[in-house]
Write a structure and sequence with these properties.
Blueprint (H helix, E strand, L loop, with lengths): L4 H34 L11 H10 L5 E3 L2 E2 L7 E2 L5 E13 L6 H10 L6 E5 L4 H13 L4 E5 L2 H11 L6 H6 L8 E8 L4 E5 L9
Parallel strand pairs: 4-5, 5-6
Antiparallel strand pairs: 1-8, 2-6, 3-4, 4-7, 7-8
Helix pairs in contact: 1-4, 3-4
Length: 210
């Protein structure tokens, strides 16, 4: 029995879309690989001054939460702690939490574009691949704002959102652009290193239009 012409058309269109998607994904991967390979490997970090340490101590009030979440890469650090540990230090920064792996450059790019403040941002997730990490680090090191990737268990993700009075997002939400105000938590202070992460919630979470 002959196959209807319409069926051949549908198959041809579907094949063309798959080829286009593969080409776009390959280009995105190559761009992320290039960004990651171009990043400095031995960036010299300033050591925390006594004044900065005293300021951090002032911010570490009773509302602070410390969990076992870890800085995803030392290149996202901003200082060396007094014991020479690379540490990311963010003040008055937004924190978005996704208790799912973030794989691929596009997910990080979507978060950066949607960032309502276009300011410093911490991205907390259970895992991220090299492409996602490359985009985050490239923007952190070469952009005008800090982008700090943090790896956490799903339990610690929940504890962070509870502390910041925010809600977690999902990879589906990021892909669709559905990132309403509640997913953007605000931290008065965020500290993250290879061992732990501490967050201090902002006293007043500014309203961000959906």
């Amino acid at each position: 029995m002959a196959v209807p012409i319409g069926m051949w058309v549908i198959l041809a269109v579907g094949l063309a879309l798959l080829i286009i998607a593969a080409i776009v994904d390959r280009r995105s991967r190559l761009r992320a690989e290039a960004e990651l390979s171009a990043l400095p490997q031995g960036r010299r970090l300033p050591r925390m001054s006594q004044d900065l340490c005293a300021h951090i101590d002032e911010l570490l009030d009773a509302g602070a939460l410390t969990v076992g979440a870890q800085l995803a890469d030392d290149r996202a650090a901003s200082y060396l702690s007094p014991d020479a540990t690379p540490t990311a230090v963010l003040e008055d920064a937004l924190v978005v939490v996704c208790p799912e792996p973030l794989n691929g450059a596009r997910l990080i790019q979507a978060l950066l574009i949607a960032n309502p403040d276009q300011g410093d941002l911490a991205i907390v997730t259970t895992d991220l691949d090299g492409f996602a990490l490359g985009v985050a680090l490239a923007n952190h090191l070469q952009g005008s704002r800090a982008v700090v990737p943090v790896l956490a268990t799903s339990e610690d993700c929940a504890r962070i959102t509870d502390t910041l009075a925010s809600t977690a997002t999902t990879t589906a939400g990021i892909r669709s652009g559905w990132l309403p105000a509640p997913v953007w938590g605000r931290a008065k202070l965020l500290l993250s290193d290879a061992v732990s992460t501490t967050v201090v919630p902002a006293l007043d979470k500014p309203s961000i239009d959906d």
